[in-house]
């Protein structure tokens, strides 16, 4: 059985190092993409405070299709041309938004979400998915969160078998 340990007294960058070690251990003996995506989403929700949604959208053509997540019912398809997730997919860059209500084409799946962090999952030069985290707290994510969660996403991606399609 896996037990998440979280030392609240650590500096944030050290906390992310600790979380990355724990994530590596959690995913160590599993290569299945869906299983690991579900575990990763739950891991993030359990490990980090002030979140109300964490999960994946998988790239399919020019849109994103909902994958494993933890949170309220979500949008099922997002075109690359819309929203924060679409911008991450379109530009292949992390999108960190302090206040989603200031984004003109933000797609509000949960009205309680105020901040968002979306990280593209790129494997062998190809977009495979985006990992999306929402918070009810404005300004929830800073550069340390971004760097830490980007590393966690790389650990997740490296732990998965990506050779088959969903």
UniProtKB/TrEMBL annotation:
Molecular functions per Gene Ontology: L-methionine-(R)-S-oxide reductase activity
Q: Which Gene3D superfamilies match?
A: 3.30.450.40
- The identity of this protein, by name, is GAF domain-containing protein, putative methionine-R-sulfoxide reductase
**What highest taxon heads this organism's lineage?**
Bacteria
Q: Which family does it belong to?
A: Belongs to the free Met sulfoxide reductase family.
What GO cellular component entries does it have? cytosol
Question: Which Pfam families does the record match to this protein?
Answer: GAF_2
- Ranges of residues in domain GAF: 41-159
Native species: Marinomonas fungiae
